[in-house]
Each structure stands twice: as C-alpha cells, then as structure tokens.
Write the structure tokens for this entry.
Amino acid sequence: MLTTGLKRFGLVAGLSLSLVIAGCSSDDGKKEEDNADKPETTASVSEAVNYTITGIEPGAGVFKAAENAVDEYELEGWNVQASSSGAMATALGEAVKNEEPIIVTGWTPHWKFAKYDLKYLEDPKGVFGDVETINTMTRKGFKDDNPNAYKLLEQFEWTTDDMEAVMAEIEEGTSPAEAATNWVEANEEKVATWTEGVEEGTGEIELVYVEWDSEISSTNVVGKVLEDLGYTVTLTPLDNAIMWQAIAGGEADAMVAAWLPATHGDLYEQFKDDIDNVGVNLTGAKIGLVVPTYVDIDSIEDLEAK
Ligand code: PBE
C-alpha cells in the first residue's frame, strides 16, 4: 500500500481561508423571467456570478493567472475566490445541476470535461498561456543514488486520455491507490515501456505532489510502478511552492507535477538551478477560465467590470 507521508513541510494551502462557494444572487430566477425572450446579455453573466471567479488553491498557477487576467482585462471589482480543487468541483457540479452561471479556474486533463458540457473562455491576451507539458523533476543527486528509479521516471510518459481514465475512476469513488493499481494492471504494455531496462531496486523514495485531481492520479500511478519495482514509496501532499522547494532543497526525491512553460514558469525559474528536469511526462495540458456551455459568453473579453 502506498502511504501518505506526514505533511512535514507544513501545509500552507489556504485551507483556513473561508471556503465560501460562489453563490448566485438570489434574484437570478426573477431576472431570467424578465429577460425570458431576450438573449442573456454579457452584463448579466458578470452580475449573476457576482463578479466572482471560483478559484482553487491560491498557490496554483491557474489561480495566479486568473488574478493576472482580472488585471489584464481590467475587470475592476472582480474577485478570484480562494478555495480548494475539490470545493471548486463541487461548486461547478452544483451550478450545472441548477443551470446557474459559474466561472471556474479550470484545467485539462480533468474529469470535469467528460462529466459536464464545458468550454474554455477565449483568452485573446494570452494570460493563461498556450498548450503545455507536464514535466518530471527530481532532486539533484537522485540519478546517482537511484539510477533505476531515475530511468523509470525518465521513461514515464502517458496521454491526457490515460490520466483522465485514472481521474474518472477516483471521481467515481475509488481510492487513488486502488485506481492507480487498476490502471497499471489494465495497461501492462504501456507500463512495460516505462520499465524497459529498469532493474528492481530497494530503498525509500518520496514523491511530492499537490492534491489536484490530475496530480493525485499521476503521482499514485508512478508510485505504484515504483512499488512494484521493489521500492518503499511515500507520497507527500504539499502546497505547490513547497513541493518545488522540497525537490530543490533535496528533502524529497521527485515529482511529476511541473506544468511548463507557463503555469509553473515562475517556480521553475526560481528553482531550476537546484533541480534535475527529467523531461516531459504528458503533452496537451492547458489551463484557463472554464464555464458550462449554457453560459452565453465565449471570451474573457465578454466579462464586464463591476
Ligand atoms: N492545476 C493542476 C495546477 C497545475 C496542475 C492546473 C490546478 C496549477 O494551476 O498550478
């Protein structure tokens, strides 16, 4: 069994911040009646979401990008609400159930796109960057200490579909460790390309990650494969910046959660001299502002200042 390690670096995720889920103003129903025959105006979307973007952990790149978007698109009076990935997904699910407007900080790969009809708002100013890769990083010296585990990490590469399959199973209620085991068992051929030429090993390996759905999936899968190779693996959830710091400081061994070039670009610049960038493990990642398709706007430019 994979063990979840102590949060010994101190979890600075903003869990103490009040998790106020974006409620939609109580007069929505009335407004819709009044405007029944008119197309919804863009002003009404901004107003109906109470000038609020439902965010996630403030340490996430997509959260910082959303705050930049508020500046760049001159959305005076808007608030990017700090929350958690789980609370954001709950708020999104509630809004969809009630067909209420909502704007969330979103990313791909994520199960929400399979479960709900959603769209990214266009970002003509490019605040959220382009399509990205997810990269694997280790502490310096890990390669010499654990050449076989390093080789596995070097060869670990999968697709957005692969990752979303694991995420979907977790979303349906399977534990992350079990979903990872199921995926590894069902995808022997792909896993064999990762372990090709990798000899079994012993000793402890600590993987660090952030509790984002995507990273819960990837970290558990890699952890499972390392365990099958004979290692004792600890998975430690941390805040984003602290995850990077743990690798750079050599307190933890590896992570598979670096979104580049944009989402974690600032952290990569800060720590790149002290970490080993092993390479890409997934292509086709993306972040942005996401709305249900029934929300009648297409671009961040359609939002209006308060
Ligand atoms: N995410 C998931 C992270 C990277 C992975 C998009 C929430 C972030 O924004 O930092």
Residues 152 and 196 are 8 Å apart (CA to CA). The pocket of 1,1-dimethyl-prolinium is lined by residues 56, 60-62, 107, 212, 214-215, 240, 259, 263, 287 (CB under 6 Å).
